[in-house]
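Q: Got a minute? One more chain.
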Amino acid sequence: MADKAYDAIIVGGGNKGLVAAMYLAKYGGMEVAIFERRHELGGGWSSEESAAPGFITNTHMATVGKFYHTVMPWDFPDFQEKGGTWIPYYVAHGSIFEEDQSCVGIYGEDHDPDQTKSAKEIARFSQRDADAWIEWWKKWKEKIEPAFLKTIYNPVPPMGVPDPLEQALMNPEVGIEPIWAVKSPIELLRDIFESEAIQSHLLRTVHAWSGNNPPDLGAAAIAQLLGNFLFTQYGCIEGGSHAWAHACHKIYLENGGKSFTKHEVEKILIENGKAKGIRLADGSEIEARKLVVSTLDPYSLCFKLMGEEYFAPRTLRRVKHLSRRNIAITWYHWAVHQLPHYNASTINPDIDKVGALNLITKDPEALIREDAWKKLGKMPPDLNLMVWSHSIVDPRQAPKGKYTVASEQFVLTADKLSEKEWREYKKQHAEDVIKHWNKFAPNMNWDNVIGYDPLTPFDSLRLVNMGPQGNWAVIDNIPSQTGRFRPVP
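A: Always. Here it is, folded:
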């Protein structure tokens, strides 16, 4: 006899669990309960005063795309009123190049809807590249983006039936050349853009999402190209990413939802081939009248929550060998007196307003060398840094007259160093980041720093989904693990 019963049980109260629960409660008319191991809901929607008191740091969010929540205000008209406000960046992404402090800024779609400002930026390096950017922007807006949105917001079609995005990319008017399906990201970008600086910028920007190595994974090339247009829709969440967790939870509660934190799920209970409920770590059992939704990583679902006996041997092999090693990063959050003021602002003052800014070289092969070091089990000696600041567009996230900034660098996975080695690395990496940042922004020095929060792959292990490598996306975003194939077909 179960201790309690609900129509739907959600295992894990992260952002995906919260959103699923919200829809099931309102539109499914179900009695829903969320069970979460941690002390609060939200998962990656996490905002803490970790760098210094009064400074909001979003521990698992650099940028938030408008497309993340396209349908939320439609389906829940009071979502924004309850705290679900998204703020676009003025300049969505950009790069400053170490060789000569030259720069390129790609303006956000909300502020540059036809991308003419962005094209002028690119034209400083190559007019042909500027023309190519506009050409592909038009293709993106007219044919590709509508198909992309239909794809991500609708059920996956059966194998062998193209989804809307695949159909759009097969349209001859889009101009996808057959060879691009087998070209690597760096090969494709060299096909379309002639400036190595522009190639370097486009590679590093989308690398922040994919973590894929530029010469590998031919099928990732088109995503690497299109991701740069998608990134024009990036911004941040007003008040910090946890505000969205509050907004979703308010709607969920209003529709009768229940949530239980500090309630770890030990097992999904199976009867006659169907999930019938859960057993908690304290031994109590909860019945699911209609369904159980797991938001945990594939390995935990198959090998811990359910059991190998419920899956085909090939499925278990696929899950066991999922790629988890690409997206291992440091996210350092800094509380500062002043925003970085870049040397490149003499070229374009707006470079100080970039939402996601790369501090890199013009060499498009820099990421190739970085990946080679990691494959050898060594920390890369050179930084390919991305930095950002939500304070540029949202002063609520820091005390008046102060700011938050953050930095990202791809590094080794958590299991490659001991706890002691990670502690030592944290200190050295902070020194390296400030030294590198200072080359581009002279005011970005230790006198400007109030405090910082050094997060590494080792720290991400506090969220069980991320282990054992500390992958910030749970599993890698390689072609065989995205779209209809995620996590396994």
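A: The first strand starts at residue 4 and ends at 11.
Q: Perfect, thanks.
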